[in-house]
Design goal:
By secondary structure, the protein is an alpha+beta fold. The protein has helices spanning about 10-20, 35-40, 45-70, 80-95, 125-130, 135-150, 155-165, 170-200, 205-215, 225-235, 255-265, 265-270, 280-295, and strands at about 70-75, 100-105, 110-115, 120-125.
């Protein structure tokens, strides 16, 4: 994994070229969405992103890790072993070291990964544990492990600081970095939804977990019509609302479900999940997904 050492961005970039969590020369892993990989590599040449990453890493190492974890409970073999076993399963599936995971008291269905590539951790909101089955939680944890597996963590942390602490910065000064990072983040989410599916090995489980994020009601989960939910994607294709997505860090949830369905048809996933021979090559998968994920035609 990348060694940040000093807080020099150029040194960080040069170090990653020799050894990246995201695969040889940063090319990413076989399941990764190609637009995630190419956009992330381009960050090495974008000055606003370079400056933002340097500041975020400095802030993380100095103070913010303790602030983020001040009210969270660390998961381990003796603390929530059921959740810990899910983390171990995901890490073994993706071939990474078992990450540090914390449960935080929060009512929203969410999880996040912060830190640096050599000091990263996952925070899971308590509501997520309450609402999700173990298999659904496995998909979510797999998604977060995917961020670690694909060297996303520094950029996610940077985006977190720029969006949650914007009042500290001059707004116009951070917007170029925020827009660039949001555009990449939407692509990174596609990669990590695939990582979650690789861990769960069940398309039904992973798509149900995504739909639950949109709904958030234990009384309505069983009544949710997934196909009707996906029709919402078509309804918004010609509306001005699609332009709002340009400023979002995640694709709209119906898009993520549709994109994940395409990946489930891949030869790579079918082989991984022991579903038999055949399937789409990843180049075809990414072409189809691009048509789904793109914000503007």
């Amino acid at each position: 994994m990348a060694q940040l050492g000093s807080l020099d961005f150029r040194g960080f970039v040069d170090g990653r070229r020799h050894q990246r969590a995201g695969g040889a020369e940063g090319s990413g892993h076989a399941y990764a969405y190609v637009s995630d990989r190419t956009t992330r590599l381009a960050f090495d040449r974008i000055k606003p992103v370079e400056l933002a990453v340097t500041a975020a890493v400095r802030m993380f190492k100095a103070v913010s890790k303790n602030e983020l974890l001040g009210h969270a409970v660390k998961v381990g073999p003796k603390q929530f072993p059921r959740v810990h076993n899910l983390v171990v399963r995901c890490a073994e599936t993706l071939g990474i070291a078992t990450p540090t995971v914390y449960i935080r008291n929060a009512p929203t269905l969410n999880a996040a990964t912060y830190g640096t590539n050599d000091d990263s951790f996952i925070i899971v909101h308590s509501a997520l544990v309450d609402h999700f089955t173990d298999e659904e939680l496995l998909s979510v944890i797999g998604h977060e492990c995917g961020h670690i597996h694909n060297s996303h963590v520094v950029y996610l942390t940077t985006l977190h600081y720029l969006t949650t602490m914007a009042s500290i910065f001059v707004q116009w000064a951070v917007q170029p970095a925020v827009l660039a990072l949001n555009g990449w983040s939407r692509r990174a989410e596609v990669t990590c939804d695939r990582a979650g599916l690789m861990c769960s090995r069940s398309l039904d489980t992973s798509t149900r977990a995504l739909a639950k994020l949109a709904l958030g009601s234990t009384k309505l989960y069983e009544q949710l019509n997934l196909e009707a939910f996906l029709d919402q994607y078509q309804e918004g294709q010609d509306g001005v609302g699609r332009y709002v997505e340009l400023r979002a860090s995640h694709p709209w949830l119906p898009k993520r479900v549709l994109a994940l369905r395409v990946f489930a048809e891949s030869e790579l996933f079918r082989k991984h999940a022991s579903l038999g021979e055949g399937g789409l090559p990843m180049t075809d998968v990414d072409d189809k997904v691009h048509d789904i994920i793109k914000v503007l035609g």
